[in-house]
Amino acid sequence: MKSKKNFAPWLIIVGAFLILVNTLYVVGSGQPIILSSFYVGSVDQIQSLTSVWGRMAFGFPGIAEGWAAIIWIFLAVFNFLLSFLLLVKTGKNMSLKYIGLILSLLSIAVGGGFILGLVLCFFGYLVVLQPGLPFEETFIGKIYGVAKLDSSFLSRIAEEKTALHTGALVLVFVNLLSGIGSGLYSYNLEIIRANLDTISSSSSQAILFEIFFMGGVHWGLPLVAMVFLQMGLAIIKWAIFSLIIYVLGAKMVGSSARYEDIAKIVAFAYVPVCLQIFMPAVLVWPWLFFEWPFIVILVTNFWFFVILMTGLKIVLDISAGRAFGVSVFCSSIYWFFNSVVLSSFLNFPGIRFSIQPIDVSVLIVSTSALVAVMLGVFKRYVSV
Amino acid sequence: MNAKNLLVLYLLSLALAFLVLSIYLPWWSIRTSNEVEIVLGGAASIDFKLWRTVSVVLRLNRTRSVVLGVSELAGEGQDIGALKNVLNVTFYLTLLSVALTSLLWVVAIFSIVKRSLIPQRVFNLLVVIVGVLLLATPLYMFSSFYPFIPKLERFSTFSFPYTWAEISPADVKSFWGSISIPRDIGFPSYLVGSDFWIWGAGAGWFLCFTAGLILFSVAILSWQMIPKKVV
């Protein structure tokens, strides 16, 4: 068990190495690395594109030029040294680990080791920040166990008494990441939309050029507020969704599962949603306003659904078919409540998809109820 | 085999690889900015390398390039000689650093496969000395190189397109700098004032500097491995 945890410092070393290489590349060229699917030379050209164009940026513009380059090299080498010191002084100096974590996060400004390096360091540091625990027991280990749909791990979570608290922390962590990702995306989308409307002005063209071609990312205080709002709301939504599953799922199938058991599974099921942090890493034209965020949200939410279904199968002790029925039924009701009822009187910032006309939404909920019946969700309830 | 010494070896190997690469890569460059490259769909660069050569490349529809010896650059013989001398000193300092780092690398190998050839404290001292040398080399170049650039007459035997912002050696007044996009060369108005040409340390300079920092990292790591006396 314990030997498994030794891979964490090596993850950090590989990550720190990638960060160093990325930093050297960025400071050597004096500009961020911009990868685009094909050559486009102006904002006007972007607007008239009929085929899909995408760009990915590693680093922010104007951050590693001149003397600043030396500072970034210092930070990258220091981070690399810290990763080696972890192996020499395993588990001892906690402050070094926090410094390493902060340095790794800072590296996003110079590409974050092609993003992969930052991800490796981030996860590695979160593991080593909990010394003495086997990997599966660490915060990241639990997230990993859920993400890979390990059913034995999910059943352990259902039984674990402290899992509710950990679940709430997971929820905050996941919504912090997804809030930053989807928040940054929607914030920049608003800037792009506003400047597309005034494209004839020079300043609008400059902003669009910076975002599309130079890898520029805008952020501001509203974005920070948006992230905090999303984290807080996530807890409320979690309680409501768990309640819907408890009342319409657990009670209907006649399970003895407690509200707390359902809440644990729902909280951990949110894990894949953290991948939404990568949403602003890619800009895709003309998919910018719908297709790209929709794909990201669809993939992460589908993964969320599969974990939820697997978890409910375990915690409610029912067949896979009935678990699917419960998940579909409860998720559609929750979705209706969240995206139709709640959104109609509260205008939350961030990315939101709505189906029009509203009758279609009602039709989806009705269909899911029928699917639940067909899959025998209410079987026991009817027979009694 | 001491597994911890392997870590030192990894770091030394990386420093050595960076140093060898730095000999082949430019130490000081003038190049077109990202904005210019996007708008024009081409790029240009003037790279000074340690081999006392200057390579000028223009990629626009087709690629034109020329490699000149520093002594072939147009300018006063005395200034050209001084510039060549700076590159010479930098080159030999880098070669010396490569040799010393290689030596440290061999010592590290011995300490892993057989036994340490020298006491660890001496090894650490040598690592620090080589680290200082590695940091001193790019700093020497930084302080001594750019004053001679404005004294050159031109950089290349061919000219860049006449529609481009002009760059001449006289424009270079510091190690790092830039020339803005002027109003009258047909660039979009929102890019006027952004950089056209940027100059400064090249990849080789950064690699040598990084190798120096890595050597200090080796010293710190190696120092951490020395068993502490228990009183």
Account of the 3D structure:
- The complex is a heterodimer of chains A (384) and B (231).
- Chain A has 384 residues and is mainly alpha-helical.
- Chain A has two domains: 1-135, no CATH class; 138-384, no CATH class.
- Chain A has 16 helices and three strands.
- Chain A has a three-stranded antiparallel sheet.
- The longest helix of chain A has 35 residues, at 163-197.
- Chain A is flat, with a radius of gyration of 23 Å.
- The model of chain A has no long low-confidence stretch (mean pLDDT 88).
- In chain B, helix 1 (3-24) runs antiparallel to helix 5, helix 3 (77-113) runs antiparallel to helix 4 (120-144) and helix 4 (120-144) runs antiparallel to helix 5 (203-225).
- Chain B is built from five helices and six strands, in the order H-E-H-E-E-E-H-H-E-E-H.
- Chain B has a six-stranded antiparallel sheet with strand order 4-3-2-1-6-5.
- With 231 residues, chain B is α+β, with helices and mostly antiparallel strands.
- Helices cover 49% and strands 17% of the residues of chain B.
- The radius of gyration of chain B is 22 Å and the shape is elongated.
- Chain B has a single domain (3-225), classed as Butyryl-CoA Dehydrogenase, subunit A, domain 3 (Up-down Bundle), CATH 1.20.140.
- The chains are: A mainly alpha (384), B alpha+beta (231).
- The A-B interface holds A 20, 24, 27-32, 34, 39, 41-42, 61, 65-67, 69-70, 73-74, 77, 80-81, 84-85, 87-89, 202-203, 205-206, 209, 213-214 and B 4, 7, 10-11, 31, 33-35, 38-41, 176, 188-191, 198, 200-203, 206-207, 209-210, 213-214, 217, 220-221, 224-225.
Quickly describe the structure.
Chain A is mainly alpha-helical and 384 residues long. Chain A has helices at 2-5, 7-29, 43-47, 68-88, 94-106, 116-128, 139-147, 151-159, 163-197, 202-213, 221-253, 259-269, 291-315, 320-345, 358-374, 379-383; strands spanning 33-36, 53-58, 282-285.
